[in-house]
Structures are given as C-alpha cells and as structure tokens.
C-alpha cells in the first residue's frame, strides 16, 4: 500500500510538472499562418464612417469673422486660444463637461440654435447640419466636428488592463492590446472577444490572434466604446499555484517515506 501511495504521489508531481510548465513559443506567437509578403485586405473603419449614438460626446467649433460669434460658441477663444482650448479639452473630465453630449433623444443642444439631431448620423452629416443651422443666423461660418469619446476598454490577460483613449480616426485591435502592455504569458491568444454596442444591440465577436483570418474581421478595426477581453489560459490557476501544489505533494511524499521507515 505504501508503494502505491508513493507511486500516486510521483504521478501527481509529474502531472503537476506537465500542467505548470511554461507555454511553448508557438502558443505566444500572433499570426502564425501569415507568410512573409502576403497582402490581406482588412475591412477599414474610421470615425468618419461611425454612426453616432446617444451618449457620444462631440467637440464642435464654430468659426466666423465675427469675434462675438466665436466667443458665443467657443468660449476658449476668448482666453487665449491654445491655452483655453487645452484647459477646456485637455482631460477626460473637461471633455465631458465642455463637449456636446448626445442625449437619449439623439440630439445635441447648441447655443441659440437649440436642439440638433445627431444620433445615427456620421460626423460629416452632423457638421453639415450644424453649418446649415448656424448660417441661418450668422453668415460665412465654418464648423468643425470631432468625436471626443473614442475610448476602448481592454480587460483580461494583458499587462495593463484599463481604458484607452484614442485621438486618431482609427485604432486596430493590435494597437489597443499593445497600449495595454501586450498579452501576458497566461493569455489564450486563440480566444479574444470584442464586445461591441450599436443602436440595434450588443454583439460579441470572437477572435483568434494566431490566425491571419482575424485581419479581415469586423473587429480588427475597433470602434468607440468597444470592450476587448483576452481570455486566460485554461491552466492558469494550476500554473500560478504550482509552487503550493508542489510543496503539498512533496510533504505528502516525505510523510509516506517517514511512515514506511517507521513501519519497518
């Protein structure tokens, strides 16, 4: 019986060694089947084509030869343009306070002009609508419209999970993961999920980072408010607790040897 217990303990230690061993290099390599020189046409996305929705926050600037009009729509212009602009939009909280938030009815509220429909429109369409409204009151005014809340949440097995604020027109999945410090040794590259909200509901898009096919996925170019979740390796807990399990098995083996010695 003692021999059986020792054999069982040895088998347990071997199994622990197998499951807690480091992952192979292949398991940590992205795009494993992408030959050198091959071209893949990704499905492009930029904020220019993004359909706005309630909760989105917009930067709107109205410029005119009339300084009073500029001051009315752009208070930052009256306090030193660059300094005032940095103060009004230099942080996430100030962007929230000073941007034009699309309400649940799909509108933004502008001085004098009033409510302007923005939901389910592109930035270019909102720009055109605002220009038309402004020019009813002030001639030769130009309008700039930009999206302030192009943020992405990266969670799971990355080195620095958190919220990423993007100030370019595009952001790819690889860029977002890189900004989050890259994937950890416990990541499951074959299972990355992008959670995307739209006016019609929430969609989950599963990605395999080891397969070149994800470059042609609708989730390769991320959209505002996307959530990226990198799944952990299924043996993560075993690997993390390997030292504890090894100590327990070692103690059991020692106890068995001692008991065997005492019984002889």
Mean pLDDT: 80
Distance between the termini: 14 Å
**Broad CATH class of the largest domain:** Alpha Beta
Strand count, sense and barrel status of the largest sheet are: 5 strands, mixed
Form type: elongated
Q: Quickly give the CATH architecture of the largest domain.
A: Roll
| SS elements, strand count | 10
CATH homologous superfamily name of the largest domain? Outer membrane lipoprotein wza domain like
Membrane topology: Multi-pass membrane protein
Domain SLBB: 151-230
Keywords: Cell outer membrane, Ion transport, Lipoprotein, Membrane, Palmitate, Polysaccharide transport, Porin, Signal, Sugar transport, Transmembrane, Transmembrane beta strand, Transmembrane helix, Transport
GO biological process, one term: monoatomic ion transport
Structural summary, described in words:
The chain is of the alpha+beta class. It folds into 3 domains: 2-23 and 238-263; 25-46 and 150-232, Outer membrane lipoprotein wza domain like (Outer membrane lipoprotein wza fold like, Roll), CATH 3.10.560.10; 57-147, wza like domain (wza like fold). Helices cover 33% and strands 22% of the residues. It contains 8 helices and 10 strands. The strands form 3 sheets. The chain has a 5-stranded mixed beta sheet with strand order 7-6-10-8-9, covered by helices on one side. Strands 2-1-5 form a 3-stranded antiparallel beta sheet, with helices on both faces. Strand 6 (151-156) and strand 7 form a beta hairpin. Helix 1 (2-20) packs antiparallel against helix 8. The chain is elongated and about 105 Å long. The two termini are 14 Å apart.
């Amino acid at each position: 019986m003692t021999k059986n217990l020792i054999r069982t303990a040895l088998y347990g230690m071997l199994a622990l060694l197998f499951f807690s061993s480091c992952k192979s290099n292949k398991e940590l390599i992205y795009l494993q089947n992408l030959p050198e020189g091959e071209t893949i046409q990704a499905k492009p996305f930029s904020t220019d084509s993004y359909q706005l929705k309630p909760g989105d926050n917009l930067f709107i600037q109205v410029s005119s030869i009339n300084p009073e009009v500029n001051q009315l729509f752009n208070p930052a212009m009256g306090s030193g343009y660059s300094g005032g602009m940095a103060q009004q939009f230099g942080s996430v909280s100030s962007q929230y306070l000073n941007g034009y938030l699309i309400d649940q009815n799909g509108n933004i509220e502008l001085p004098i002009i009033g409510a302007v429909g923005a939901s389910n429109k592109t930035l270019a369409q909102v720009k055109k609508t605002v220009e038309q409204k402004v020019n009813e009151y002030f001639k030769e005014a130009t309008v700039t419209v930009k999206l302030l809340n192009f943020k992405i949440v990266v969670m799971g097995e990355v080195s620095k999970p958190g919220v990423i604020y993007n100030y370019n027109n595009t952001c790819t999945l690889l860029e977002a993961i890189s900004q989050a410090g890259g994937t950890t040794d416990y990541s499951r590259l074959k299972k990355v999920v992008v959670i995307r909200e739209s006016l019609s509901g929430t969609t989950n898009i599963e990605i395999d980072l080891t397969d070149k096919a994800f470059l042609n996925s609708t989730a390769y170019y991320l959209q505002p408010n996307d959530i990226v979740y990198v799944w952990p390796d299924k043996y993560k807990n075993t690997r993390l607790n390997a030292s504890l399990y090894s100590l327990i098995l070692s103690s059991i083996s020692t106890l068995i040897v001692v008991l065997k010695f005492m019984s002889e």
